[in-house]
Specification:
Blueprint lengths: L1 H13 L1 H22 L3 H21 L3 H10 L1 H6 L5 H30 L7 H25 L6 H25 L4 H30 L1
Helix pairs in contact: 1-2, 1-6, 2-3, 2-6, 3-6, 3-7, 3-8, 6-7, 6-9, 7-8, 7-9, 8-9
């Protein structure tokens, strides 16, 4: 698993343009909102958490196309499934690689964007606390959707249709953790969803990978 994770990170480094495109999309999409809403600090601070969460969700979807697609087309996926690793482990490593190359950079970039959008300084730690489990959930659900649509016609269209409805609870509780006067409850809900998704999403993704390979 460690060797496979190293391979995924090396591939991501060689294809850094794809990761950079997702991060640039995150920054540009969030930057457009002040132009549309105006420079009023109260308006921006009221919607800043929602803007960052929605843009992070959409940016996390961009690299999912290449998560399994290239390996499926050139036969590498078959070799991975025959290497002694279970399909569950393969899906788990892919999820970890997606979070390390996309979710973690989004988490880092969120801070300056929050300042730009006039999010109150006391809410920025809450934004980090919500995005940490939130980006992990996005990676888990996105990997599962990428595996389910692997080999399907128009998979690029099907994948967001499957992923976005599953991510709505994450979006709701993630924004509530930043804006609610009592953030503990939504943060606990995010943690509970993460605990549930950690074993189940790779299991579903692994079953989908085996079906696609057969």
């Amino acid at each position: 698993m460690i060797k496979m994770l190293g391979r995924e990170l090396r591939l991501a480094w060689r294809q850094a343009a794809d990761t950079a495109a997702a991060l640039l999309f995150f920054v540009i999409a969030a930057t457009l909102f002040p132009f549309a809403l105006g420079p009023d600090a109260r308006t921006l601070s009221a919607v800043a958490a929602g803007i960052i969460w929605v843009c992070a969700l959409l940016a996390a979807l961009l690299p999912l196309d290449r998560l399994f697609g290239a390996d499926f087309e050139d036969g590498t996926l078959d070799l991975l499934l025959l290497s002694g690793l279970s399909a569950y482990a393969v899906a788990g490593v892919k999820t970890a690689a997606h979070w390390l190359t996309t979710g973690l950079p989004l988490l880092v970039i969120a801070a300056p964007l929050a300042v730009m959008l006039r999010l109150p300084a006391e809410h920025i730690p809450l934004l980090f606390l919500s995005l940490l489990p939130g980006t992990l959930l996005l990676s888990l659900l996105g990997t599962m959707a990428a595996a389910i649509t692997l080999g399907a016609r128009r998979s690029a269209v099907l994948m967001p249709l499957i992923t976005l409805p599953l991510m709505i609870p994450t979006l709701i509780f993630g924004c509530a953790a930043v804006t609610s006067p009592h953030p503990q409850a939504p943060l606990l809900m995010l943690a509970a969803m993460l605990v549930l998704a950690l074993p189940l999403a790779p299991l579903a993704a692994g079953a989908a990978l085996r079906a696609a390979a057969e």
